[in-house]
Specification:
- This protein has about 130 residues and is α/β, with parallel strands linked by helices.
- The protein has one domain: Nucleotidyltransferase, domain 5.
- The chain contains three helices and six strands; from the N terminus they run E-E-E-E-H-E-H-E-H.
- It is globular and about 40 Å long.
- Helix 1 packs across helix 2.
- Strands 1, 2, 3, 4, 5 and 6 form a six-stranded mixed beta sheet that branches.
């Protein structure tokens, strides 16, 4: 089982959805909030709103998110964790392109890291408690 104390800051990041249900807007439609979190500190390094009209974010959106996250420590991590159950091929491909090892793990192993952030997002913006 993974735990934050297994990592040093910026050694590993986690890609995940902050929301458990799409965020609806009248003007622009529905979105999911894709986030990157540092595994050691559980600090959210950046997020991108991704239209639900597409099954995955675009390569440009993923590069923009990685660039935002990199600003905090001026380097990329060695490892990026992504839930096995999540469709994350675009972010996995871009991470590997930037020499980041991608590790797929069961979503249940990431809850210790992302659960509090998802709960806070749910309290602020609503939504269900089901994982996406």
């Amino acid at each position: 089982m993974l735990h934050p104390n297994q990592f040093s800051v910026n050694e590993a990041w986690i890609a995940f959805h902050l929301n458990s249900a799409p965020i609806h807007t009248d003007l622009d439609g529905s979105f999911n909030c894709l986030a990157l979190m540092d595994a050691a500190s559980c600090f959210i390094l950046g997020s991108e709103m991704i239209s639900t009209g597409r099954p995955q974010p675009s390569p440009l959106e993923v590069r923009r998110l990685l660039k935002k996250a990199k600003i905090h420590k001026e380097q990329l991590p060695k490892t990026l964790f992504i839930a096995r159950e999540w469709q994350g091929e675009v972010i996995a491909h871009e991470a590997e392109r930037q020499n980041i090892e991608v590790v797929r793990v069961p979503e249940s192993e990431l809850i210790i890291f992302v659960g509090e952030a998802q709960q806070g997002f749910r309290e602020r913006f609503g939504g269900t408690t089901e994982a996406q």
